[in-house]
Design a protein that fits this description.
This protein is α/β, with parallel strands linked by helices and 259 residues long. It is 32% helix and 27% strand. The chain has nine helices and eleven strands. A seven-stranded mixed β-sheet has the order 6-7-8-3-9-10-11, sandwiched between helices. The chain has a four-stranded antiparallel β-sheet with strand order 2-1-4-5, with helices on one face. Strand 4 and strand 5 form a beta hairpin. The protein is globular and about 45 Å long. It starts with a strand and ends in an 8-residue tail after the last strand. The relative contact order is 0.17.
Length: 259
Amino acid sequence: MAALLQVEDLAVTYGSGVHAVRDASLTVAEGEFVALLGANGAGKTTLLRALSGLLAHHGGRVTRGRIIAMGHDLVKAPGHLRSRIGITQTFEGRRILRDFTVEENLEAGGISAAGPAVRARIGDLYDQFPILRERRRQPAGLLSGGEQQILAIARALMSDPKLLLLDEPSLGLAPVMITQIAKTIRAVRALGKTVLLVEQNAHLALELADRAYIMQNGAIVGEGRADDLKRQEMIQHFYVGFGEGSLPLRRRTEARPAP
């Protein structure tokens, strides 16, 4: 499959020189579901911000490397270009419009589409996620955390993205709701969407993904097929750090320390 997204030797700093991402390289093929795993602070969300064009809003900048998506070099591209070519991101913490109804949130997600297309997409999403139809007239702030996450994902789908970036969709949810979110993400897969999922929950991510990369201290230190990784007990060790004897994935020897 052709690469829809290719990140090459990406380095990102914040402020006066805090190295958040170091020489990170990854690819996502069209129609593929790829997970990016790592502990809190590993650099996962920073990498997503670099992809979606939100990095500058958080005081970050790309200092080295390339981001190629759908034939476009995105390192210096504005956020609106990324949106126009089909990159959409959901955010850690969901960031729904709490005072708007569920349906108004969906309409906001489809703001760039023509009226008839918006209504058709909302109808399709109600069929896909019936809980949203049941809650469509309710303010989004009254939904449970899991329902808000389903809404955030559905709102992102309203733009009919070619590449969907999911940032920590299970964060802060009870186990029963994580099961529901997994079902929601599987429904996204069934739509044939290309997805890059950022997650700390390795078990969830590896159940959903085709392949996975692991980040530590801003560098991608390993990669592998999800089916292979699920059988390796040592995957647990990325939560507490990597050692030579505990790496669950093929070592990325090309990862270099920041200058």
